[in-house]
Structure prediction request, 227 residues.
Amino acid sequence: MTKLGPSLMCADMGLLRSTVEEFDQAGIDYFHFDIMDGNFVPNFSMGIDMVKDLRPHTDKPFDIHLMVAQPDSFIPFFADAGADMITIHAEISGHVQRVLQSIKQQGLKAGIALNPSTPLQALDYIIEDLDYITVMTVNPGFAGQSFIPSMYRKISDLNKLIQASNLDIAIQVDGNIGFETAPQAVAEGADMLVCGTSSLFKQNVSYAEAVMTFRSFLHNQNVINKA
Prediction:
């Protein structure tokens, strides 16, 4: 079943604890944390203490998206804070495969994120080390951007690559995933949806109602139970 993960970057930072608790009760599948260093992307967001403080309030997986230039130094700290999954970017300088192995050594799921212009060839020689792959459908760093249409083809091509490789790797999509974009993204092969202001963070709508409405919409589009 397609998994929904609210992006906590879109939440009210003063109400994070109640936001996590409400989404947990609403039945979301995981929580997505965007960690930015102001270097790899021109923005700052969230940190280790925030993850640690929120960990006692849900048993749902914490998905840590490291948009940082040197992720290797962050991994032990996020593991100790309660991460279950960590994504690094293929575009970092340094030893990508070694960083992926360090995530695995912490007992966590390891993911790689691909910026919109990064080709799938970046996965050569590391795909066997991955539990999931994040297709960035906007350029990372800021919420509220427009979905890049060519990413549908990228999701489809990635799905074919995974199937041909006979590997058990999930496809996550991140960037303006909502009512207009999610059905085709899932139809092309997405397993995990990072959900922000286009889907779950709606003004004057409770989180429980937002989750129910979005799940029902996907079910009615005949994509929520993609094989």
Notes: The chain has a mean pLDDT of 93. Helices lie at 16-26, 48-54, 75-81, 96-105, 151-165, 182-188, 207-220.
